[in-house]
Request: fold
Amino acid sequence: MSPTLMWFRSDLRIHDNRALAAAAHRGPVIAVYLRALPHWQRHGHGANQLDFRARGVAALETALRGLGIPLLHRDIDDFGEAPETLLTIARETGAGRVHFNREYPVDELARDAAVIEAFRAAGLEARGHHDAVAFAPGELLTGKGDYYGVFTPFARAWHRQLSAERLALADTPPPQASIGIESDPLPALPALADTPIDGRQWPAGEEAAADRLERFLRFRARHYANQRDFPAIRGTSELSPYLALGMISWRQCLQAVLAKNDGSLAEGDAGLTAWVNELVWREFYRHVAVGFPRVCRHRAFQRHTEGLAWRDDDAGFRAWCEGRTGYPIVDAAMRQLVATGWMHNRLRMVTAMFLSKHLLIDWRRGEAFFLRHLVDGEFCANNGGWQWAASTGTDAAPYFRIFNPTTQSTRFDPDGTFLAEWLPELAELPVKARHAPPRDLLGGSDYPSPIVDHKAARLRALEAFKALKAD
Reply:
C-alpha cells in the first residue's frame, strides 16, 4: 500500500491526533512539516511563539522517531506554496494521499481548500479532520439556522449534544516498519527581529503539556473558580500555549476532568466545570471565525462599531506597551507579558479594556501587540478576547462597562504582591499605596503619574459610543 502523508500544523503531538490515527490506518505514514516563517511573521506572530513552535516540532520529531515515522521538513515563504510543495513530496515518496487536521481562520480555510483541490486534480486523496473542535463549524446552529453570536446558548448546545463518541481519544499509531525514508535534519530557527524569551519558562512538547495538566488537576483545579482571577496566585492551568499548538488536545483535558469529576463536565466541582467552560470558549471563537469571517479581516464583529472614532495616540500606545501608564495593575501586566510571553487572563481583560476604553485606541493595535508577544498567540481566542474588551465583539462587555484599573487591582491583588513582583519600584511602598501610588511616597522613583484620569477617560469613551449609537 502506498504511504500516507501526515501534514502537521498546529497539532504537534502523536497521542489523540485524529488525522494521524486515520493516516496510520491506511498503512505506512510519512510526516511532513512546512515551516512558513515569513508568512507567520507577516501575520503578526513573534519570536516567542515561533521559538516555542520550533521546539515543539523538535519534540514531535523525537516522538515520531519512536514510532518509526520519518518527518520531512520544508521551508516555504507563504502557505500559497503548500499545495505544490505537498504534491512534490507525494510524487517523490510515492504517497497516495495526505491527511491533516483542519484550522479555521479564513486564510487557513482557503489554504486547505487549495491543497484538497490540487491533490484531487492530481488523482490523489486529501482529507481534513475536525480534531481541534468537538463540533465542526456549522454543526451547532441557532433555531434560525445561524451561527451562534452569543456564548451562553452556544455552550448549552455544546453540552447538550456532546457525546461519548466525540470525546473518544484517537488511537496512537503502533510503531511501523522502516519504509526506507530518513527524517530531515531540523534547521535551526534563524535570527528574528525580537529575541525570544528563555525557553525554560515554557518547555515544549507532549510530555511538558501532560505534566502541566497533571499538576493542575492535582493541586489547583478544584480551586480554579475561586483563584483564577488573582494573578499573584498560580491558579490557572497555564496550558494555553500547549492547546494553541496542539501539544495536548482538548479531549485529553476533558477526559481528565471526567475522571476527576464523577463523569461530568457541566455539573459537580465548581473549579473543574469553570475550567471546562474556558475550553468551550476556545471552540466558540473558532466557530465565530468561520460563521463571521469578517473578524478574520480586521473587522469588528458588531458592524455598527466600525464607525468608532478611535484616537491616534502613539505616545499613549507606547506607554501602554512599555508598562508605563501610571496605573500599576496595567503596567505590571504588560511587563509580565513582555518578560514571559504570557499574561494572566484577568489581566488580559484589564489591559485590553484600558487601551480600548481609557485611551480609546483601536483594539486592533493591542490585538497585534499581544499576538507578537504571546507564546499562546492564537488568532481566534486573541481576536475574540480583544473584541470582547473593546465592546465590538461577541458577548461584548456593554460599552458602558469600563473597568476601573485601581479597583481591579485592589480586588484581585489585595496585598499588592503581583504589583511588587513586576514593579520593583513600588515594592517598598505600603500595600495600600501600591495600587495608586502618591507622588510623595515615590521618592526618587521614575514611576510615571497616570497618563489619563479614570473618570475623564470613562466619560470620553461613553461619549464616543453614544455618538456611534446616535449615528
Remarks:
- The longest helix spans residues 270-291.
